Recover the amino acids of this structure.
């Protein structure tokens, strides 16, 4: 059975950081290849794609640091042969920032690759209920969907719609870091 993984980067980052709860451990040391093989289990791992909002350089120290870290993450994902699909980030009048287009890209690509018969099982790492219609559509192609989430932010819509569920535990994630990691601010 062919397995493709669709990672909502913002959801994964926030969920993993909250679950690990240790600022000395950086996701820039995470072994995404081994993690993908873990998720696919005995299935044939075909591809993973990582979806995030593109940060821009803002000129201030914080913006530059966040931009540099995102570029390092994109570089790390490239070493694991995981393409990064970029959405946009917009600033709201209240000063908060929000991703736009990321969930749409995930949904479109899940459906596109299902239609092209490029996988048998989709593994969706996200907690965004907006993806329920995409999961429903993927299943009309006879594909299975495994929803992977975090206990603190489980989407009950995705749980109900998907064929199976995996809630990640801290021990699951810690297996994909080197024995000693350094704090790198991400």
């Amino acid at each position: 059975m062919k397995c493709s993984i669709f990672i909502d980067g913002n959801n994964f980052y926030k969920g993993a950081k909250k679950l690990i709860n240790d600022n000395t451990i950086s996701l820039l040391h995470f072994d995404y290849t081994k993690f993908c093989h873990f998720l696919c289990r005995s299935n044939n791992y075909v591809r993973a794609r990582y979806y995030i909002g593109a940060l821009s350089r803002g000129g201030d120290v914080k913006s530059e640091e966040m931009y540099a870290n995102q570029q390092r993450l994109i570089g790390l994902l490239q070493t694991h042969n995981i393409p990064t699909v970029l959405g946009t980030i917009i600033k709201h009048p209240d000063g908060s920032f929000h991703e736009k287009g990321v969930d749409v890209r995930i949904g479109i690509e899940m459906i596109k690759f299902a239609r092209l018969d490029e996988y048998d099982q989709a593994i969706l790492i996200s907690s965004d209920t907006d993806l329920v219609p995409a999961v429903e559509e993927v299943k009309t192609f006879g594909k299975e969907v495994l929803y992977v989430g975090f206990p603190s932010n489980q989407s009950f819509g995705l749980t109900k719609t998907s064929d199976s569920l995996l809630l990640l535990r801290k021990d699951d994630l810690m297996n994909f870091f080197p024995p000693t990691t350094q704090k790198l601010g991400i």
